[in-house]
Amino acid sequence: MQKSVLEISSFKELSATIQQLEPKLSFFGWRYVAEHNEVLAIDAVAAHMIKLLEQNPHFTENDRPYVKAISEHINRIYKISDNQVKNSNFFTRISVWLRNVISEIFGSCRARWWWKDCEVINQIPYCQVFEYYTAHQFQEKFKCTPEQAKKRCPLTKYEGEDSIIRWKAPILV
After folding, report:
1. Residue 152: C-alpha distances to residues 139, 155, 164 (Å)
2. What is the pTM of this model?
3. Residues 6+ positions from 146 with CB-CB distance below 8 Å
4. Which residue range is the domain that position 35 belongs to?
5. What are φ and ψ of residue 21, in 5° steps?
6. Counting Cβ atoms within 10 Å, is residue 40 exposed (0-12), middle (13-18) or buried (19+)?
7. Domain tally for the chain?
8. Is residue 9 part of a domain?
């Protein structure tokens, strides 16, 4: 028996599993992916990845390609889902809109916002976290501290709500 996406705790395993997910849109405006015999909301998949990133903010360089692949696939799922909504019938589009409004009012699921749009509050969107380095990651990757590197070239610094400071490297290798 295979694990559910929401039970996976390794970036490598999640990367392999998430590649198989394709977005679907119900007549009643529910955005989901089907996996084995389970149906998951797209936002639940993004929320699970956010949870993994929060549990392991100092992921290793070996994990970085997996984090990037997962992020790109979740972005792809959202993009396909957005196109499905755009091409759906009027009733489905209204249903999606109502679901979004209710979610915003009651804050039931903000995963999509945290995943893609939180730059408006100077927070790194989780879909871009693989482009940034914590001080620990920076030291391991570039063999110097961000402060030392800043003397040689400009770095973008972000301090997130999780109080973890991250730097965007000038050139990703």
Report:
1. 15, 9, 23
2. 0.80
3. 133, 135, 138, 155, 157, 167
4. 5-130
5. -85, 135
6. middle
7. 1
8. yes
